[in-house]
From TrEMBL:
Keyword Membrane found: yes
InterPro entries linked to this entry: BP-dependent_transpt_permease (IPR050366), MetI-like (IPR000515), MetI-like_sf (IPR035906), OppC_N (IPR025966)
Top-level taxon: Bacteria
Protein name: ABC transmembrane type-1 domain-containing protein
Domain ABC transmembrane type-1: 163-353
Chief location bin: membrane
Membrane-spanning ranges: 20-43, 165-191, 198-220, 226-245, 276-298, 333-356
Length: 364
């Protein structure tokens, strides 16, 4: 008869695997994480921040196609492969949307794309400007799967690159909240007395301030920017972690294994870090999943208000801000697509949080 281990970790893993929505959410989050890391390698527009503008083809519907003339540029500085993958092309080439072109003697004549029946004068460029006069490789049909935004940028590329902000803000904010929350909650719950009273006063004061207002204040103090928003969101989410950790430590600090650790002469730091915290991490993990979702929503709200990630950086919240008025102009997809991305990612974190709560519940 073979021996089968029934440790709590394996039982929790088995219960989690049975939760279809939890497993699906986990794979979706991993998929978004992969896209966030390799966004520039996957995006049709791999320029930095996917910021290649074509004002003549602004606000085009999904599936729009146009011929694109790539202007030869001999002054592009070399950039490393890893830099291109993780930061995009810093020295982008110039692209021109054209509706027609022809070759006459030693010149290439092209007509820039223009909508609404606008007449555009043809322009020319010498064939000598192209390497070996091969102009055909510089004219290609470009397809915009999600269409273009109001600046003529590829919406799909902006969505892929914008996933970085929404995804990584969850990790940074949750890391900061765990770092501060576990420390403060451990001190309050383990030592009690005046230490608990002071820390709980700080927690209550922080909790009484509206989250969005506090984030705005911190953001204005630190300045507008990418990392400032990450820090600001993280500094507003630690109170929930601290309250949970405090309550859990109060309930377990008088248990026999903690008393035995004290009797063996272990110091308070070792008792907290080695004996208490590993046994109370289940509810902390669950609340961290909820904080991921909350961090994404807060960042989206800040970007919508204009104090989050700053242009030209791509952000789902900023994309909604730029295009929400297009909902009544017959082009709602410009705001709906990033909105659906936010909703899907937030829902995935909430579902995986519910799945972890059920899996880590030892009573069931």
């Amino acid at each position: 008869m073979s021996y089968k281990s029934h440790s709590l970790r394996q039982l929790a893993l088995q219960k989690f695997k049975k939760n279809v929505w939890g497993v699906f959410s986990l794979f979706f989050i991993l998929f978004v994480g992969f896209i966030s890391i390799f966004a520039y390698a996957l995006a049709p527009d791999n320029s930095m921040h996917a910021n290649q503008m074509h004002l003549s083809i602004h606000s085009k519907k999904p599936g729009f196609k146009v011929q694109m003339l790539t202007m030869p540029n001999q002054n592009i500085n070399k950039q490393s492969f890893l830099s291109k993958v993780f930061y995009g092309e810093k020295n982008t080439i110039t692209e021109i949307a054209i509706s027609d072109f022809k070759v006459d003697k030693d010149n290439l004549f092209y007509t820039e794309y223009a909508s609404d029946g606008i007449i555009v004068v043809s322009k020319s460029i010498p064939l000598q400007a192209f390497p070996e006069g091969n102009y055909k490789s510089f004219i290609n049909e470009k397809s915009f799967v999600f269409g273009t935004d109001k600046y003529g940028r590829d919406l799909l590329s902006r969505v892929l690159v914008g996933a970085r902000v929404s995804f990584f803000i969850g990790f940074v904010a949750v890391f900061i909240s765990l770092l501060i929350g576990i420390f403060m909650g451990s001190l309050a719950g383990y030592f009690g007395g005046k230490v608990d009273a002071v820390i709980m006063w700080i927690i209550n004061v922080t909790w009484s301030i509206p989250t969005l207002l506090l984030v705005i204040a911190i953001t204005l103090a630190l300045g507008k920017g990418f990392w400032q928003v990450f820090i600001a969101v993280g500094l507003t989410m630690w109170v929930e972690v601290a309250r949970v950790v405090r309550g859990q430590i109060i309930s377990v600090k008088e248990m026999q294994y903690v008393t035995a650790a004290r009797a063996l002469g272990f110091n308070d730091f070792r008792i907290i870090s080695k004996h208490i915290l590993p046994n109370i991490m289940a509810p902390v993990i669950v609340i961290s999943a909820a904080n991921f979702a909350a961090a994404i929503l807060i960042e989206s709200g800040l970007s919508f208000l204009g104090i989050g990630a700053q242009p030209p950086m791509a952000s789902w919240g900023a994309m909604i801000k730029d295009h929400y008025n297009y909902i009544i102009l017959g082009k709602p997809y410009l705001a709906i697509i990033p909105g659906l991305c936010i909703m899907s990612l937030v829902m995935s974190f909430m579902l995986i949080g519910n799945a972890l709560r059920d899996a880590l519940d030892v009573k069931t």
